[in-house]
Amino acid sequence: MEEHELRKLEHQKQLMSLEDKLKAEMDKHHLRLEKDLETQRNNFAAKMKKLIKKHQAAVEKEAELMSSEEKKFQQRIQAEQKKELNSLLKSQRRECKLRKEQLKEELNENKSTPRKEKQEWLSSQKQNIQHFQEEEKTNLLQHQKWYLELQCRRLKRKLLLGSHNLEQDLLKEELNKRQAQKDLEHAMLLRQHESTQELEFRHLNTVQKMRCELMRLQHQAELTDQLERNKRRERELRRKHVMQARQQPKSLKHVRVKPKEKQTQNLAILTEQYDHNINEMLSTRAPHLDEAQEAECQALKTQLQQELELLTELQSKIKMQAEAQHAQELRELKRRVSLRKALLKQQIDKEISTFQNECSERIRSLLECRAKEMKAFNFESEGLGFRNDLSNLAPEAFSHSSPGAPHRGHPIGGLPQAWGHPVQGGSPAMQITLLSQCMGYPEVAVCEFTIAFRL
């Protein structure tokens, strides 16, 4: 029993050592997964920070370009208007000179008219000519001013629409980038779950396999010890019977008494001969047994057989309990893994829903900001008297092919393209569609923004 207990303690020690080793491996595995996830998130954050900084620089550059475009456009129109004014003044001087010559000829033809009256009439005609030219000049200046303001308002509106489209493109790029990052992070979480699950099942199998092997060794040792014990007890009983049947071996009856100096040597010889005779009798079934001895042998065999059967039954029960325990451990591990995966999917779905709401809010905020800017611009234009001149313009009026127009890389005044797209061959994409009335866009009544979320 002491050997059995020591053996059990040794087996428990080996099993605990294996469990500690596997636990250390699992802790190392979790630490590596956390480090990989943290590294990926940090890389994403760095890339997103770089992207935001790039977008800010693009917006600032766009504002500078708009200001420069406006100034150049205004200077170009003013230069053309200055040429037009100079041409008018030159034409007026030429016409004035010709008109004066005509007036003089008319005066020379009417010789009967008094000189003073001629002078007064000539002065009056000159004033009329001058007044007409001043009025013509004033009308031209007023028209040029109105035309300059109109063209500047048109350009400003076109630039404002281009700026809005740029903001839309930047937001589209940012949201698609963040969506791609979310997809990669969720894919990593699922891969980590699968790797952890695989490692957990492998560890459980290793522990159960070692437990079964130690149990097999324990049962084999117990059975071997029991069989040896049975043989030993049978051998002791046969020795007892032999001792009872023959209290003294025949060889001792014929021994002659010898001198004391030879007794020690003879005793050793007799002892050796006695052991040899006993072993010979034990090695073969002696026919010298009585009924009592036969009954005692049968009782011992029955007892030993019962003890062996009891040990076998106990070992079988222990094995069944171990198998039931292993099955329960496997079911419990499957339950934990399934629950952990369900919680992970719930977390992913929650993050997707949160991101979708954030995207909708960002798009809604962008539309509202654009609408407010266009409303303020239209209100200002109406105050300057340009309501119909601006709102009734056809989309071609905002074409980038017109002189001085900035190149955006996309049309102005058209429907924005769909944002994002599902991956081909992947699962069906969830889509958020936000329809909003675009105030300030007469040529576009409704803008539709669609963001595809890949699962």
Question: What does the model show?
Answer:
The protein has 455 residues and is mainly α. It has one domain (23-249, 277-283, 295-392, 415-453). 80% of the residues lie in helices and 4% in strands. The protein contains six helices and two strands, in the order ααααααββ. It has helices at residues 2-109, 115-245, 250-253, 263-283, 291-383, 387-391; strands spanning 430-437, 446-453. The chain has a two-stranded antiparallel ribbon.
Short characterization:
The chain has 455 residues and is mostly helical. It contains six helices and two strands; from the N terminus they run ααααααββ. It has helices at residues 2-109, 115-245, 250-253, 263-283, 291-383, 387-391; strands at residues 430-437, 446-453.
Radius of gyration: 56 Å
Q: Count up the domains.
A: 1
Work out the number of β strands.
2
Unreliable stretches: 251-264, 281-285, 391-455
Give the SSE string. HHHHHHEE
Shape: rod-shaped
Biggest sheet: strand arrangement: 1-2
Strand content: under 5%
Percentage of residues assigned to helices: over 70%
What do the pLDDT scores average to? Answer: 78
Tally of alpha and pi helices:
6
Quote the distance from N terminus to C terminus: 62 Å
